[in-house]
Amino acid sequence: MAAERLVVIGGDAAGMSAASQARRMRGPDDLEIVVFERGHFTSYSACGIPYWVGGEVAERDKLIARTPEEHRERDIDLRMRTEALEIDTDGRRVRARDLESGEESWTAYDKLVVATGARPVRPELPGIDAPGVHGVQTLDDGQALLDTLTSTSGRRAVIVGAGYIGVEMAEALLRRDYEVTVVTRGEEPMSTLDPDMGRLVHEAMDAMGITTVTGAEVTKILTGEDGRVRAVATADAEYPADVVVLGIGVEPRTELARAAGLPLGEHGGLLTDRAMRVRGHQDIWAGGDCVEVLDLVSGRERHIALGTHANKHGQIIGSGVGGGYATFPGVVGTAVSKVCDLEIARTGLREHEAREAGLQFVTATIESTNSAGYYPGAAVMAVKMLAERRTGRLLGVQIVGREGAAKRVDIAAVALTAGMTVEQVVTLDLGYAPPFSPVWDPVLVAARKAVSAVRAAGS
Amino acid sequence: MAAERLVVIGGDAAGMSAASQARRMRGPDDLEIVVFERGHFTSYSACGIPYWVGGEVAERDKLIARTPEEHRERDIDLRMRTEALEIDTDGRRVRARDLESGEESWTAYDKLVVATGARPVRPELPGIDAPGVHGVQTLDDGQALLDTLTSTSGRRAVIVGAGYIGVEMAEALLRRDYEVTVVTRGEEPMSTLDPDMGRLVHEAMDAMGITTVTGAEVTKILTGEDGRVRAVATADAEYPADVVVLGIGVEPRTELARAAGLPLGEHGGLLTDRAMRVRGHQDIWAGGDCVEVLDLVSGRERHIALGTHANKHGQIIGSGVGGGYATFPGVVGTAVSKVCDLEIARTGLREHEAREAGLQFVTATIESTNSAGYYPGAAVMAVKMLAERRTGRLLGVQIVGREGAAKRVDIAAVALTAGMTVEQVVTLDLGYAPPFSPVWDPVLVAARKAVSAVRAAGS
């Protein structure tokens, strides 16, 4: 019998990374590891679902980084289709139900990891549960959507929501020869950008043949006589639909944590310390889509569901459980996405986020190209930059362009982390050769304009 | 008559950027601007020459950002084909010769900018001046090479040197259906990388059908009865050649500066202060390929001929001349390049550079992919990272891979500038989505391995 038992609730990115890292650091004689996973899969890429639905990734299993069997070979007691129902922090135990047999039992823990993930926001609309209406959060969701696509002959798809899941699904369904309509409450698509930059995405989507309806709240899902979806209704109009995809966003899945009295933040996510320990609980860690993270630019907690953070959290938690030391300093809010050949990126704060954080700022927006203007295939790239008034500190960057545009946001992500001013950004020694950049990289051009804006704004 | 006169020696990137920025800040009544340029062109992209020779850029004029006429329209007295012969710092005047008429005259200055650029290293080898042997430093060089290519029927090209100019010219001549042989003294091609990373370039060049001869010093250029080049000889072998391109590197063109007693560094480049003023001379600035720059990682001066630096220098000098304030903090040694679809990048220090700087270090090399492994077209990318022993400070990164590999080096360039440790790099919030990156960006994977290497090395 092992000296200690680790229980992990949730077997995707954060949970399995934590379990794997803990196992690397402590052998099975020293640490028993039990993982409860409700679903059928472990360690898969939810971010890859749009590319599987769109047909670029041929099969579901390619999205699975490690199967339950592979985890078990590493001496992890992985209990699939097992749902955790209750955490008893005083008794240090978790009650769970085997979803196949219906049996329930308590499992004691010395150390606990909560990695319960997020759930898609599913507004309570009439018809929302009708056949043909799909979320795309899990592999099971993706399979259900694909089943609908293959069993339905109609070619009209409506996507509710125009965040990154929405636009990626628009691309996926366009690839499958659907007429795609994206309906969003927002002023422009890609609400992760300021509306002036979202406008560029809107125009590009128009050119791709995607219909975008903005400022439209969905009020109802209309069904036909067969009970299947037939249209999406807003206050003003009806949009015929053979299939509907919900891409409205996600929220932390923290009912278990809440019932156990674990501390939650204003966005409903678990609150942790720098080592990803749940605040006030020395033996409980939490990570991935169920936690809130510190935004280093605004100084406030945010909820960001993203596999790259979940994997880092898992690694850090596993180190902590294993007796090592690692911390997660926070995020700057970087996100990249694409619709067909249009690349979209952001990091740091948008205008309204900066205002909410009490920051005064100037903005600078420029157009440049991804390569030297004379190089074949040079394509326009727009960069918007926010800089703090007076100090000139970089606050955020948004980019919309073609090949090579999105990952340029990493330059700003590192500069934000380092607390650089836009004047410091101007002189950064970035890679230059004609196939890769104009002689002034577009990010530097934006920074030059931001420097002028900061000066012009005075003190 | 203007209050002051600015004289600029050299009308390419640094010189014309300085002149243009000074003009923006001071009108013609306040500042007269005279520029001497030896050649036929101003403000052109020398870095673009390989793509013009290779046929991707259709015509020479596309490489010219601004013509002499355009500069003159902005009230810059640009004297083409005029060579500066002497700087008299006591008398504050420059002697120059009109290369067409042969006339010489002195021009007085209040402020002087030295932007004399670099010249290609041209070893004193027998036959080096034979027809068919070409440098590729200036537009005139590029035109001469193109004339040779169109007038010669043979299809064998030998490139001497395998730095970035060498490999870019290898691509250009491959595109023109030449049999290409690259001859280098180095252990591997791309001497801007450590040999273990250069090896990856070598293998990729083999696969492209480029022959690379390493460890080979060229001893002679052999000519035929017609006086034209017929082969390149090393100590061991002869390589038949219908055309030879010299890509051995460049050195600062600073005879004028030396004769005038201006301070030169150990690489022969001018030494300036942070505002790009020549040290000890309040009214003389220098920038571009004729200066040495501070390497922020090693703390030593380097000579780096690169358009992106030259443009920044020009901008800063123009601000200074115009009465503004801007500084150039230094470089971290970032360079990106490509051979066909192989992308090559570096920033910071290589192993021998770190040793020369007195730095002890560990290395970590990893292989990952440019996008999620399951995403179509995912291609292998190798990242090598150097970190300082004990402190874990990032010292350098080298990357060899396919699309999306090279500009990832910017992440490291910013982190180097900020003085980050590899542990700080691991938690950077970089853009992640399956088309753009695995869930752990390759740079982060390298940093994780470097963290382990730093720990393993102990104190």
UniProtKB/TrEMBL annotation, chains A, B:
Keyword vocabulary terms for this entry: FAD, Flavoprotein, Oxidoreductase, Redox-active center
Pfam annotation, one family: Pyr_redox_2
Record-annotated Pyridine nucleotide-disulphide oxidoreductase dimerisation domain positions: 337-439
Cofactors: FAD
Gene3D superfamilies noted in UniProt: FAD/NAD(P)-binding domain (3.50.50.60)
Domain named FAD/NAD(P)-binding: residues: 5-311
InterPro entries: FAD-bd_OxRdtase, FAD/NAD-bd_sf, FAD/NAD-binding_dom, FAD/NAD-linked_Rdtase_dimer_sf, Pyr_nucl-diS_OxRdtase_dimer
Origin superkingdom: Bacteria
Family per similarity comment: Belongs to the class-III pyridine nucleotide-disulfide oxidoreductase family.
PANTHER family found in the cross-reference section: NAD(P)H SULFUR OXIDOREDUCTASE (COA-DEPENDENT), PYRIDINE NUCLEOTIDE-DISULFIDE OXIDOREDUCTASE DOMAIN-CONTAINING
Name under which the protein is recorded: FAD-dependent oxidoreductase
Organism: Streptomyces crystallinus
